[in-house]
Every structure is written in C-alpha cells, then in structure tokens.
Amino acid sequence: MSFDSKAANHASDTCRDRNANQRWLNNVTTPSSARSSEGERYHLAIVGAGPAGLVAAAGAAGLGAKVALIESEKMGGDCLNNGCVPSKTLLNAARRASEHSNISEDDIVRQKPLVHFDRVMNRVETIRADLSEHDSVHRFNELGVDVFMGRGSFTSPESLEVNGETINFKRALIATGARASKLRAPGFQDIEMRTNEDIFSLNELPKRLIVIGGGAIGCELAQAFARLGSSVVQIEKASRLLQREDADASKLIQASLEQDGVKILLNSSVESVSKDGTDKVVLVKQNGSKHQFKGDEILVSVGRSPNVQHLNLEKANVKFDEKHGVEVNDFLQTSNPKIYAAGDISTAEKFTHAADFMSRIVVQNSLFMGRSRFSSLIIPRCTYTSPEVAHVGFNPLQANDGSVPVHTFTETFSHVDRAVIDGRTDGFARIHVKKGTDKIIGATIVGQNAGDHISMITMAIKHRIGMKKIAATIFPYPTQADVIRRLGDQYNRTRLTPRVKNLMSKWLAWTR
C-alpha cells in the first residue's frame, strides 16, 4: 500500500513476499507422515483443526495423551485462513489509509490516499503465511499429534474413519466450526457472490461493492473497502447495524461508516440478485419502495452455519440440527458422553477466544474427570470497526425487561484528555452494576482500542473486582483507559448520599 510517500513505497517493496500463498498452503495442507498404530486406541480424537481443535490437540498431547487430529481442508480453520487474520490485516491497511488522508489547512477538503491494492493483498497473504507456521502440520507432528488430512466421519460411538483408515478413540472432540451462510434470494444460485471465505482472494479492488448484512463482519469489511477506495452500499434487514450491541454503539458505528462513504440501507430486504452484462444487480425493498443497485462484487455476510455435514453424527449417537449445530451440556458433552464439542459447531458465541477456552474445558473434562462448566466462562466480544465496539456480560438489550435491577454509568471519551489529544473523542464506556452494590455485571466500550480496554472489565467480572476497587486504582496519565477509572469516580459519587454528606459536614464543623 502506498500513501504517495517514498518511505511507504520502500517499506512495502522490501517486505513483499511473492511466495506467501505457497508457504501458507504448504503449512496448512501438507499431508502428515504420522499414522496410527493399527488397532491402537487414541485418548482423544479431534475432528477439525481450527482454534478449538488445535488448542485441544496441543494441550492434550502436552499432557501425555495420544491424540489424533483430523482436518478435511486447511489447518488453522476459519480464523487463520479466511477470518480473523486476513480480515484484521485488511482492516489495519484500511485504517492506515484513512489516517494518511490528506487534509487541507481549513480541515474541510479531504483527498483519498493513493492505495496500491495489490500490495495490500500481498501483506494479507504474507501475514497469513507467517502465522500459519504456528498452526502447521509439521508443528503438530513435532508436538506428538498424529495429523490426518482428510474428511473424518463417525462409524460408531467409539470410532472414526478417515481416508479409509479406522481411528478408535476413548474420547472424541467435534470441532468442525461453521461457514458463511448463503443468501437465500431469487437468483442467488446463478450469481457468484463473495463471503469472508473468498473475499481475500481478490486481485483487484472492486470499484463498486455491495455488502449484504449489518453484523460485525459486514460492518468491518464495508468500512475497510470504502477506506481503500471502493464505492460501498450496505444492506441490512433490521432497523440498525450491529443488532447485538448497545443502541448508542450502533448509532456511532453507522455515523462512522457513513463518514467513510458507505451508503447504508436499513429496514431493507433483498428481493433478487441478477446480472446485467458484467454488472451484478441487487434489487432491494425498503419501506415499500424498491431500489436497484449495481456492483462489481457482492459480499454476503448474513450469519454462520455449523459444519455438521458428512460427519455421520447419527452413527455416533450425537444429537444435532442444521441451524444450531451439535447439542452439548454445560460440560460440553454431546448426547454421547464419550464425545464432546467445542467452538462454532456448538455455541452462538462464535469467536476464536471462546473456542480456545471451550477446548481447555474439554481437555480437563474428557481426559482428567474434570467438571469445568461452559457457563463459568466470561466471554467478551469486539467488532473491529473504527471506532471499535467491545462488550462483555450483561446484554444492554435486557436493560428494560426488569429481570436484573441495574445502575448504569456512562463516560464519553470527549472527557478523557488522551482521547482529546489523539483526536479520538468519538465513543464512550458504559458499565452496568447490580443495583445497590458495586458488582459489575456488564460493559460496552466504543472507541479506539476498545477491544483492549474491555479485557480489564472482563477480568473484573471474572474475579469479582467491584467499582470501589477500580476507583481506588491509579491509572497512568494520560491514557485512554482512564475512561474506566472515571467511571469508578462516578460510582463513588453515588455513595455520597445526602445523609452521608450531612454527617461529614457535621464532623468537619465539630473538628474545625
């Protein structure tokens, strides 16, 4: 990527890796030389080498278990190959492009930077190739894991088959993840549409991009491509973007995307998709009116579907459904107590960090008679738009249903000196506490590096650190994290009731 700067061009040229894709594929698809001993039973057989499967395999093998790891496509799963790693690399490039926009002295005229899209994608490929070494077949062989590249399917409650070879197991883990859901609209079968699974294979920046979906992936990529120079239209059927998040957060993100040039249509449904010459055409219905949009590419981001196909789960006595995936109890056991499931295949919390900790529960419970519970996990989430939106715990959508009495504290970044210095005043931090106590039950942060800041609140919830202790903690000045300390001050002010203030006044008068 270039920002019309010799230094930037030089840096881009020196770090290019034209063999990145081949290195990546060699790491994640090379057949393993390791094979099971005929008739020998594995302590743990894992189907799926995404985050959940890899963490479980490395952890179990490190503790001395004999582990089989089966992967039908690429090691690393969605996160490495077409999810977190390539998307956040692309977002980083788009953010840099936005930050290097040329702004005139009157701060009104903004010119878009010159972006070399081929270099952007080369960086995406290079970063993915570099990180793939950690998830490679070779590394897991070195850890003592028998890796089988092929499609695994159950042949009984205690056995699997892959490439014609039978794998017997004492315990098994299903960790096959999820895939991008298809757009079910007239004409969808006749039009090539992109998802996160192939958007990162683009060689040219689409001049016109139509994004269908207003969730995290849709918002992140709509903003990224707009910042890189695409003309972007985003279509969402709901009344606002990021339906899971605080309504105020949704408004801020919509404003940010629109400022970056994204045209957003809410309360809109896709009526059909078609072709007009080389153009891809989307017919949209909004509030009774129909609108037609033409684009060079269509990106579909309408949810995730669990990968339950081809596993022959019926033969393993494992209950599942096509929409929600594999059923598990709080110990992550399936209906077959010898078989567990973790990650996107078995939870609505489809995050790499959730899969990581679920797999740790599986290793404890399946191999060492543990009783760790999924419900004990405190799972934060973050959408990596600019600004970022991070949330943990109590869902703001529950705030008005009366089920949990809460007291909510909100502080805007416009009151935080470091945010003012950085010119990053859009956003806020909002903490929910159980009414009448200082117990934190949830939080939303919207702002620069919100995903980093939410970790402090996650730790506080997990380890029962209340607002009193946060207020008593010294934060370095000036930092953006000071927004959390200021929330502690807000809580302390609520403790100064009229009665307490009256007693203090009497004491001061008496001791004067």
Alpha carbon gyration radius: 25 Å
Strand content: 15-25%
Please mark out the parts with pLDDT under 50 across 5 or more consecutive residues, or reply none. Answer: 1-15
Instruction: Provide the helix percentage.
Output: 25-40%
**Remind me, CATH topology of the largest domain?**
FAD/NAD(P)-binding domain
**CATH superfamily label of the largest domain:** FAD/NAD(P)-binding domain
Beta strand count: 25
User: What is the level 1 CATH name of the largest domain?
Assistant: Alpha Beta
Distance between the termini: 68 Å
Folded structure, characterized:
The chain is of the alpha/beta class. Residues 1-15 have low confidence and may be disordered. Helix 2 packs parallel to helix 6 and helix 5 crosses helix 8 (216-228). The chain has four domains: 1-30 and 80-135, no CATH class; 41-75 and 141-180 and 304-371, 3-Layer(bba) Sandwich (FAD/NAD(P)-binding domain), CATH 3.50.50.60; 188-302, FAD/NAD(P)-binding domain (3-Layer(bba) Sandwich), CATH 3.50.50.60; 387-498, 2-Layer Sandwich (Enolase-like, domain 1). The protein is globular, with a radius of gyration of 25 Å. The protein has 15 helices and 25 strands. The strands form seven sheets. Strands 1, 2, 5, 6, 7, 8 and 20 form a seven-stranded mixed beta sheet that branches. The chain has a five-stranded antiparallel beta sheet with strand order 21-22-25-24-23, with helices on both faces. Strands 12-11-10-16 form a four-stranded parallel beta sheet, covered by helices on one side. It is 33% helix and 24% strand.
Task: Present the secondary structure layout.
Layout: H1 6-14, H2 20-29, E1 41-47, H3 51-62, E2 67-71, H4 77-82, H5 84-99, E3 102-103, E4 110-111, H6 117-132, H7 137-142, E5 146-149, E6 152-156, E7 159-162, E8 165-174, E9 178-180, E10 208-212, H8 216-228, E11 231-235, H9 247-259, E12 263-265, E13 268-276, E14 279-286, E15 289-295, E16 297-300, E17 304-306, E18 320-321, E19 325-326, E20 339-341, H10 352-367, E21 381-383, E22 388-393, E23 406-412, H11 417-422, E24 428-434, E25 440-447, H12 450-462, H13 467-471, H14 482-495, H15 498-511
Parallel strand pairs: 1-2, 1-8, 2-5, 8-20, 10-11, 10-16, 11-12
Antiparallel strand pairs: 3-4, 6-7, 7-8, 9-17, 13-14, 14-15, 18-19, 21-22, 22-25, 23-24, 24-25
Helix pairs in contact: 2-6, 3-10, 5-6, 5-8
